[in-house]
């Protein structure tokens, strides 16, 4: 049994009424099973997705409770994604409550505030 790498803490708070969540980087145009796990209850949601041409995965339709924390991971044998040239097998984020329209919020990119050192 292999041991996966630690989670990447995105530091992002996702609006509870988002239109979708994107993260990555994985091989482009590849199929994945992605899980979103509620950190407290351990409830799991599973999604079948394909990465886009840039290797970004987007999940649409996740049901997230406000004021809770979640972890996203890939199900394939500790499959990893790359952030700032470091491999991770999961990414964590928290959820905030909002009354905004999901169309106004759009797709939330868990990596948009990341600045890799150069």
Question: How does the SSE layout of this entry go?
Answer:
Elements: E1 8-15, E2 20-24, E3 31-38, E4 44-50, E5 56-59, E6 69-74, E7 81-83, E8 86-88, E9 90-96, H1 102-105, E10 107-109
Parallel strand pairs: 1-9, 2-10
Antiparallel strand pairs: 2-5, 3-4, 3-6, 6-9, 7-8
Description:
The chain has one helix at 102-105; strands at residues 8-15, 20-24, 31-38, 44-50, 56-59, 69-74, 81-83, 86-88, 90-96, 107-109. With 118 residues, the chain is mostly beta strands. The chain has one domain: Immunoglobulin-like. The protein has a 5-stranded mixed beta sheet with strand order 1-9-6-3-4, with no helix packed on it. It is globular and about 35 Å long. The termini are far apart. The relative contact order is 0.35. The mean pLDDT is 80.
Report a brief summary of the structure.
The protein is mainly beta and 118 residues long.
Question: What characteristics describe this protein?
Answer:
three-stranded mixed beta sheet, Immunoglobulin-like, 118 residues, 1 helix, mainly beta
- From N to C, what is the helix and strand string? EEEEEEEEEHE
**SS strand fraction:** over 45%
Strand order of the largest sheet: 1-9-6-3-4
**What is the second-level CATH architecture?**
Sandwich
Instruction: Give Rg in angstroms.
Output: 14 Å
SSE class: mainly beta
CATH class: Mainly Beta
Biggest sheet architecture: 5 strands, mixed
CATH topology: Immunoglobulin-like
Low-confidence stretches: none
Count of separate DSSP helical elements: 1
Distance between the termini: 35 Å
Shape call: globular
How many domains make up the 3D coordinates?
Answer: 1
């Amino acid at each position: 049994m292999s041991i996966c790498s630690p989670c990447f803490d995105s530091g992002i708070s996702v609006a509870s009424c988002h239109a979708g969540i994107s993260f990555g980087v994985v091989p482009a145009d590849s199929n994945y099973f992605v899980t979103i796990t509620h950190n407290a209850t351990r409830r799991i949601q599973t999604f079948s997705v394909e990465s886009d041409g840039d290797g970004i995965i987007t999940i649409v339709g996740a049901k997230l409770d406000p004021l809770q924390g979640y972890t996203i991971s890939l199900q394939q044998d500790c499959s990893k994604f790359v952030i700032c040239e470091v491999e991770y097998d999961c990414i964590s984020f928290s959820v905030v409550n909002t009354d905004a329209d999901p169309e106004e919020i759009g797709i939330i990119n868990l990596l948009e505030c990341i600045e890799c050192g150069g």
